[in-house]
Specification:
By secondary structure, the chain is an all-alpha fold. It folds into 2 domains: about 1-145; about 155-200 and about 240-360, no CATH class. The chain has 10 helices and no strands. The chain has helices at about 10-35, 60-90, 95-120, 125-145, 150-155, 165-190, 215-225, 240-270, 275-300, 305-330. Helix 4 packs across helix 10. It is flat, with a radius of gyration of 23 Å. The two termini are about 30 Å apart. The relative contact order is 0.13.
Length: about 375
């Protein structure tokens, strides 16, 4: 059987997997925010029970966060197996099959990594586990995009008059994905090393543009911020490494904001509908993310706000990634494409008002 270019059922399933992955990132954020990463000290069992037979009566306190995290991760694993089976049993293109294999391999690797973090009690593995989760979210979104009807029917604009602007968007989007991902890595390190409140004020750092550069200055700055009362000093005291890690995250937020605003500006100027929708959503997510970051500091890092900050950060990454993927599809030369073919596609000049904001399902040009 000749592979078809679009399989609606597989696409809907891929979209469901991508959407279902998002709550897992939020739950993982709650685990970190509540310090529940070691609440269940064994793996793959839970207090000696089979993970799936662990009595609900014992899901109390931080155990609830960690155990639900494990169960939901297992659910994503089952969905990934289903995606792989569907891709290979259906008449799909080879690229979709390999992407499905990558999704399955990614979720297995992520599960083992999370288990080793518990067994070996290594905080660095927790950081890597959080960063790989973001990459897996992007991979699941990529499968949803590639299996969509839009992907199959997207015009080839590599030989049109807007190619220069299109290639610029491809470059900007690629750089933005790298910048956002690096910022998420810094954020993961900061969270796991308890540096989120190492700088307690905004927008300055202990009342100055730059944070203290030595331990004496840091002690004096903390005492000044505490109003001279030693009883109000943080316990345990923050280190210089934690302070500068928090400051690096703030600088990263500025860099991310500038790169995303420039990307959104270029996309709006080009006014290509299939890129405009995710760009506008990206602008809204950026504003939400900055707001959550400020609230995390001002409200002294409440678990739900801090976890929402992590989750929206993941949405910023995946939306930027989807935008980059769509731009590459439109403006990268394709083998055997005819000159000017993109301008003749009737889909090119039509806007589907029902196109999803993230561009994951059936959006048309």
């Amino acid at each position: 059987m000749t592979p078809s270019k679009h399989n609606l059922g597989l696409h809907v399933y891929a979209v469901f997997l991508a959407v279902a992955t998002f709550p897992l990132i939020f739950i993982g954020g709650l685990v970190t925010s509540h310090g529940a990463g070691m609440a269940v000290p064994d793996w793959p069992n839970s207090y000696g029970y089979n993970m799936f037979l662990f009595p609900p009566s014992r899901w109390v306190g931080n155990i609830w966060y960690e155990h639900v995290h494990r169960l939901y991760a297992s659910f994503i694993g089952l969905l990934s197996i289903g995606l792989c089976l569907w891709a290979f049993l259906g008449d799909r293109l080879r690229v979709v099959r390999w992407l499905a294999v990558a999704v399955l391999g990614g979720v297995i690797f992520q599960g083992v990594l999370g288990g080793l973090r518990v067994v070996l009690v290594k905080i660095n593995l927790a950081v890597i586990h959080g960063c790989i989760a973001q990459a897996f979210f992007c991979l699941s979104a990529l499968v949803a995009v590639v299996t969509s009807r839009w992907w199959a029917e997207a015009p080839n604009l590599s030989r049109t008059k807007e190619i220069r602007a299109g290639r610029q968007i491809v470059r900007l989007a690629g750089m933005a994905v790298a910048i956002v991902y690096c910022q998420l890595i810094i954020g993961a390190v900061m969270r796991h090393y308890q540096a989120g409140l190492a700088i307690p004020d905004l927008p300055l750092a202990y009342g100055k543009v730059l944070p203290p550069a030595n331990l004496n200055d840091l002690n004096a700055a903390e005492l000044r911020h505490a109003g001279g009362d030693p009883l109000l000093l943080p316990s345990p005291p923050f280190t210089l490494a934690q302070v500068w890690l928090a400051f690096e995250h703030r600088i990263g937020a500025i860099v991310v904001s500038l790169s995303l605003l420039l990307l959104v500006y270029r996309v709006v100027r080009l006014n290509r509908p299939s890129l405009l929708w995710p760009a506008l959503v990206l602008g809204g997510l950026l504003l939400t993310q900055l707001t959550l970051g400020v609230l995390t500091v001002l409200l002294h890092k409440p678990a739900d706000v801090a976890s929402a900050h992590v989750a929206v950060g993941a949405l910023v990454l995946v939306t930027t990634f989807v935008l980059a993927t769509r731009a590459v599809r439109l403006y990268r030369p394709r083998p055997g494409a005819e000159s000017g073919g993109g301008e003749k596609n009737p889909i090119e000049n039509r806007i589907d008002s029902t196109a999803p904001a993230f561009g994951l399902a059936g959006a048309r040009q």
